[in-house]
Amino acid sequence: MAISRSNAFLRKHDSQQLPLYVMFVDIVGSTKLSSELSPDLLSKLVTIYLQEVAYVIEHYGGYVLKYVGDAVLGYFPPEEKKNREEEEDGIDGNAASANNIVNCARSVVQVVKDGMNPVLEQESLPRISVKATADYGNNTIVRYGSDRRRSHIDIISLTMNLTAKMQNLTRPNHITIGNEFHSRLGPEMQANFSEVSIGRTKWKYHSLGASRPYKIFEDKYRS
Q1: How many domains, the chain?
Q2: pTM for this structure?
Q3: Which of the residues 41, 136, 167, 171 could staple to 181 if both were Cys, CB 3.0 to 4.6 A apart?
Q4: What CATH number is associated with residue 186?
Q5: Is 38 exposed, middle or buried (0-12, 13-18, 19+ CB in 10 A)?
Q6: Which domain holds residue 114?
């Protein structure tokens, strides 16, 4: 159902470029889990996890693009409008969207840690932790085939690639975001992030036209 909802949205924007927030959520140590658990138990664990993460993403107004193994790829169109409460707090539409997605990522971590893990233990399954990464930028909607209604449709962008690469520098139960995302946050939420100190040997990725590595930030929030 979640994938179908995403496909319906993307087909409305076939071959267009859209500004989107993108998010990756991945299980920590999935390779070890796959070697230690029987296929049926591993399938059960991953199914529960994927369902819970997809539910949280959709609850916060996002779309689930696809599942890649144990990774969930989601995206959020920016909402430029703001509600009355946000207007009173002086939060513009851009910051409201960005703040909402940070809260979504925090909720994913919290749901897995405090909601899902007790259930896994009851089912004699190991507890898990996750890493969430997100960024903002232009994304191209690509259809692989001539059939407008049935051909596979996907998102391709530098934003997607950088968000995936951030997973390698994200600690368990933490959130990492890119500079484009960080710059759109409201002041209070922005203050909850600190720049990740990285060497060129660990992070060599650049934004388009930049001479220095792309800045990334880690959430100080602890669930």
Answers
A1: 1
A2: 0.89
A3: 136
A4: 3.30.70.1230
A5: exposed
A6: 2-219
